[in-house]
Amino acid sequence: MFFMIKKGFSLSLFENFPNFTFSMKDFGVSGIDTFASDTLIQVASFDITLDLLSVISGEQIMINEIIFKGPEINILSLPDGQSNYDIFKETTDETLFETSH
Questions:
Q1: Are 34 and 78 in contact (CB under 8 A)?
Q2: Of 4, 54, 69, 73, whose CB is crowded by the most CB atoms within 10 A?
Q3: Number of alpha carbons in the 13 Å side-chain half-sphere of residue 72
Q4: What percent of the chain is helix, strand and coil (3-state, nearest 5)?
Q5: What is the model's pTM?
Q6: What is the number of other CB atoms lying within 10 angstroms of the CB of residue 31?
Q7: Which one, of 40, 41, 30, 32, lies nearest residue 3 by Cα?
Q8: pLDDT in tens, the chain (101 residues)
Q9: Closest Cα partner for 33 from 88, 97, 91, 75?
């Protein structure tokens, strides 16, 4: 999987005050292996607006809004069952899913 950001990202408290907004502009994800030359998703911009107090408290972050502008999604499947959206690498590391109580 190749993640590309062409224009960058920003964090803002002013855009949707009193909420916290994280934005990424002109980014995409391309495939792996057989689909390495194919783009899975290309997005003009992605914004996520979070409740500021939940971000500060750090306990449970509340998402107010998710916006995709200009998304282009390219889903491909081959006759042998391979799909371009299967982009996660397998792992045997079980510590990734442990939770503390």
A1: yes
A2: 54
A3: 9
A4: 15, 45, 45
A5: 0.58
A6: 21
A7: 30
A8: 344 555 677 877 777 778 888 888 888 888 888 888 888 889 898 899 998 888 888 788 899 999 989 999 999 998 998 888 887 767 676 665 555 55
A9: 88
Return the pLDDT at 2: 42
Which ranges of 24-81 would DSSP assign to H, the alpha helix? Answer: 52-57
Structural tokens at position 10:
């920003």
- The pLDDT value given to residue 58: 78
Question: ω into residue 79 within 30 of 0, thus cis?
Answer: no
Instruction: Answer for the pair 8, 27: CB distance below 8 angstroms, yes or no.
Output: no
The letter for the amino acid at 73 is I
d(CA 39, CA 44): 14
Residue 31: closest CA among 6, 2, 4, 5 = 2
How far apart CA 25 and CA 66 sit, in angstroms, is 14
The token duo for 33 is 């292996």
